Amino acid sequence: MPVYEPWNEARGAEIIAEYSHMEGATLVILHALQEAFGHVPQAAVPMVASALNLSRAEVHGVVTFYHDFRQKPAGKHVLKLCRAEACQAAGGDAVATRAEAKLGVKIGNTTADERVTLEPIYCLGLCATAPSAMLDGRVVGRLDESRIDALIAEAQR
Amino acid sequence: MSLRIFIPRDAAAVAVGADETALALQRAAAKRNAAIEVVRTGSRGLYWLEPMVEVATSKGRVAFGPVGEADAASVLDAMLADGPHALRQGLTEEIPWLKRQSRLTFARCGIIDPRSVEDYRAHDGYKGLERALTLTPDAILADVAASGLRGRGGAGFPTGIKWKTVAQTSADQKYVICNADEGDSGTFADRMIMEGDPFVMIEGMTIAAIAVGATKGYVYIRSEYPHAIEAMNAAIAAARHAGYLGPRICDSKHSFDLEVRVGAGAYVCGEETSLLESLEGRRGIVRAKPPLPAHKGLFGRPSVINNVLSFAAIPFILAGGVKAYADFGMGRSRGTMPIQLAGNIKRGGLFETAFGVTLGELVDDIGGGTLTGRPVRAVQVGGPLGAYFPRALFDTPFDYEAFAARDGLIGHGGIVVFDDTVDMSKQARFAMEFCAIESCGKCTPCRIGAIRGVETIDKILAGERVAENLAVVEDLCNTMKFGSLCALGGFTPYPVMSALNHFREDFGPTPKRLQAAE
Q: How many structural domains comprise chain A?
């Protein structure tokens, strides 16, 4: 399970300063902030803008353009199910339906107890061992009923 | 003497238990007091056999697969005794599926330790760069042009011409950029190279840098590929340490260094101008062309942007393989193509072969049909923007022009197989939905057309004015195809229209108006 720090302005400033010298540093900094805090805190946006001589709107635009960046924390565990064609062809729809039923949320949502966020992902590149998923950064292929059940049980623990 | 055992660290092998198998083998060896050395390699690409474990013998490597955690102990016994085992596949090189391939780009993948420059060199690595360092940039460009290599990302643009354009453009700074944003479903060749033979790509990029006069390079890898990111970073550090990257590479006058940048989940960033925007730290909004990236690319500087497989093909060509490379293939599609067999398929994986093999051979003969054992009904070739082909088109040879002539594309070489339970209207709807989710929003046909497409297909599926709505979908597809700025909006009509044209029965009863027209 990933462990994140609570938002802290000084720590945020330190992360931004570490990368702001790089060419085109915006995404690098946003990734680093999310790695540390689990999301890109609203308070960090004007700080990034100021460090890179950009407007707040420009940084906000980047945060909201990319699917990866979160504006609020996810659940304790993030389960990403590949929903692209190769996984669809190999029974991915049934796996997704089962995961939604077991967790009681639709894809794109977090369970009420905030333990699991269920997200779609468009291709993990595991298309010859489909259907596949990623739980907190760990990849799992050849999903069937028992394997998805085990993954969900692990996420709910 | 200790037994050398090879287990992939490839993400897809890990996803089906390669790490657990490796640990179980170590435990079993400790219990038996057997000395083993485990080398973590890339994957050979025989994914139905993963986790595939190999052992070095006097006759060559012998493969076992798929070796689950529970099989590890008995497999180790068979390795130690050189005895039979139900999972024993014989000499790896003799496995027919591998033997009938022509592995030029993937010659080392699954064989070498992807973190070791020495191992790469021991398997003919850096021979292309060594020769390139003795040549003039013009001579390098001539080799690349003569090989007939075309961009393996999907567009198939001649690599030699692209490089020459950058070489001829003067600037204070030029860049070499690797597009490793392999977002197409059904493709994984880039990931395999980065995880299994990253130095071949680094070598290819270095040769490009020398040819065009660039000193700085970026590898833009999608965030969905954490294993590839780790592998590339490790390989770049190792290459730098060995003097193959950095100032004055191999004591020559050339300097070149590389940096990995990570995407953030936007499919459109696989489009080269959108990728440039993203590298510059902005939203991945597509740029209008011209100017071409070769003239004004990253930060407005001339930039070579190629796919992983294009760069990975370069070392073989430069190591004296120009003619050998060009001798493979058919028509204007020269060389070999790493084809990826995926989805509902019995023997899925990486099959590198000369252009010209037919779709039917690939799916039925090599792939063995579906994993479910049901009849193959449709295959999608070339990712989410590629057409769906029915069995009737299985005689199409794998070639850029042959696919284009049948309103399809080979794209990045992925083939996704579907059995007869597939509902093609759902697949057409998904193509539109995916385009709507991933559209960068710059041009209207893509941004709005995709959403209208989903709505209209929903109406058709609800049986609402089917003939009129089918005409609307067709019209929308034409607008998207000819009015979009990039391939996302421009190619989404391929899966939609191919589903409609080849599988009309899935879209409800044939409308009366169209019957009258026939």
A: 2
Over range B25-48, report the average pLDDT. Answer: 97
ipTM for the whole predicted complex goes beyond 0.95: yes
A22: in domain: yes
Contacts of A124 in chain B (CB under 8 A): 11, 15, 224-225
What is the end-to-end Cα distance of chain B in Å, rounded? 75
Interface of A with B in 62-121 (CB under 8 A): 62, 65-69, 84-91, 121
**How do B329-330 and B333-334 pair as beta strands?**
antiparallel
- At B187, the amino acid letter reads T
Q: What's the angle, vertex CA B14, arms to CA B9 and CA B15, rounded to 5?
A: 150
Q: Is B191 on the interface with A (CB under 8 A)?
A: yes
Measured between alpha carbons, how far is residue B270 from residues B198, B209, B220 in Å?
19, 21, 9
Please name each of the domains of chain B with its CATH number. Answer: 3-99 (3.40.30.10), 117-327 (3.40.50.11540), 329-419 (3.10.20.600), 424-517 (1.20.1440.230)
Mean pLDDT (chain A, rounded): 97
Report CA torsion sign: B437, B442, B446, B449: positive
What are the tens digits of pLDDT across the range B73-96?
999 999 999 999 999 999 999 999
- Whose CA is closest to B41, among B49, B52, B32, B33? B52
**Residue of B191, B281, B414 with shortest CB distance to A25:** B281
Residue B376 and residue B363 in contact, taking contact as beta carbons nearer than 8 Å:
yes
Of B188, B262, B418, the CB nearest to A125: B188
Domain-embedded: residue A108: yes
For residue A68, give Cα distances in angstroms to A39, A86, A93, B208, B441: 9, 22, 23, 32, 18
Give the integer Cα–Cα distance in Å for B307 and B309: 6
Pair B129, B203: CB distance under 8 Å: yes
